[in-house]
């Protein structure tokens, strides 16, 4: 079996008496979409925050591309190629879609903001950013400030920003949230192709998307992985149906 790109081993995180992450182990292998599902408050965001480096675990390790990154900052992990999108938008609202992407590309190269203005007239720099916009279907919206994009377009742009980091793995936190049925369909098709570029750890409540996309599903309940397996295995698991899926299975 291929070496995992990302491996989480016995991770623990408590908030007071609450064990939000209670001995979680999971991995992400090349080319796959691994969905992380579970009820509200199960600890999905807490887990993603630890993997991304925004929250320090109390115990356990996180390995990325074969190296222990548990003590590294968010920025250091991002530079290694760990790209993350948020439940709440992290876009710069006054900047155009194109500028948001170029900023991400520049951040990756370690350049400072003050170099942005000249590069906007440099086609060798704008063209790759336009190519990414095209991939997410936002070519016509390149010059529109992020704040003026529709909800669905902003979600697309967030993924485009992550793509500009040329990631080795994606952490996507509820990318379908707030999308209408058409938007969800478009985004599902896009994510389907994205896994070839880099594997995706996908936190998602939209079960249609999860069932359509996931190579593997792990179910988190009260900070613990209660089941992990293929979509078919998870859908037919009585404990998962009881704890989370119910009629959605
Ligand atoms: N900073 C914090 N301080 C105290 N408790 C927290 C903190 N962050 C999260 N929690 C608690 O930890 C538990 C896990 O929360 P988390 O947001 O990780 O769940 P989730 O599975 O992402 O939920 P949702 O699906 O609603 O996003 C919850 O009980 C939450 O109230």
From TrEMBL:
PROSITE patterns: ABC_TRANSPORTER_2
UniProt entry tagged with the keyword Hydrolase: no
GO terms, molecular function: ATP binding
Residue ranges occupied by any ABC transporter domain in the UniProt entry: 6-247
Keyword entries, A-Z: ATP-binding, Nucleotide-binding, Transport
Official protein name in the record: ABC transporter ATP-binding protein
Taxonomic source organism: Shinella pollutisoli
